[in-house]
Amino acid sequence: MLKGWKHGWITALLHLAPYKLSGRNVCPKASAACAEACLNTAGRGQMNSVQAARINKTKYFFKNRSGFLWQLSREIEMLKKRVTRKGYRFAVRLNGTSDLSWEKFKLQDGQSLQHLHPDVQFYDYTKILNRLNALPSNYHMTFSYSGTNQEECIQAADLGFNVATVFRGSLPRKWLGRPVINGDEHDLRFQDPAGVVVGLVAKGKARKQMSSFVVEAA
User: Fold this and answer.
1) SS in 3 state form for the chain?
2) What percent of the chain has pLDDT over 90?
């Protein structure tokens, strides 16, 4: 997230307990390899208090979705004002370690978070193909390769969406017939050119994982 600062953006990132860690699955299209390689324990995620907080937030979401969404909306508004005062533009990534369809969750007058905050740039990665059908104009989506969904990646690319893929060691020039850009330069996916594969070098547990989730660069 810090790499976005030099581009004039500050991103707020929501982390929930990924996959089935909380007892509820927040990553419905995750492959077993994707779940194993999740960055949930990267950085401060290694701390027990952080893991407990993510589990508690996830349980709160499923127990009281309306209360969760209203609190989240208030925090977005507060952070937006703080970021603006600092002279930066504000972005929000809601699925830091989840893949929930936030555009479908409604608050006031049947509006989503994206509609309630039209001056905020929302963005995420997803492995759920049908999420790409009708997104709010301020919600940018990048499709993600899971190791088992190559055909869906091709479909997403044909629909005009970029595809994020994890590679081992280095990035190839092309994948699936499309040029690969370095997605590790920043996380501002809404600033990527269209028609590319967003290459991410394997990190954390993924570096040692021998599965189709981590693509061998040719």
Assistant:
1) CHHHHHHCEEEEECCCCCCCCCCCCCCCCCCHHHHHCCHHHCHHHHCHHHHHHHHHHHHHHHHCHHHHHHHHHHHHHHHHHHHHHCCCEEEEECCCCCCCCHHHCCCHHHCCHHHHCCCCEEEEEECCHHHHCCCCCCEEEEEECCCCCHHHHHHHHHCCCCEEEEEECCCCCEECCEEEEECCCCCCHHHCCCCCEEEEECCHHHHHCCCCCEEECC
2) 76
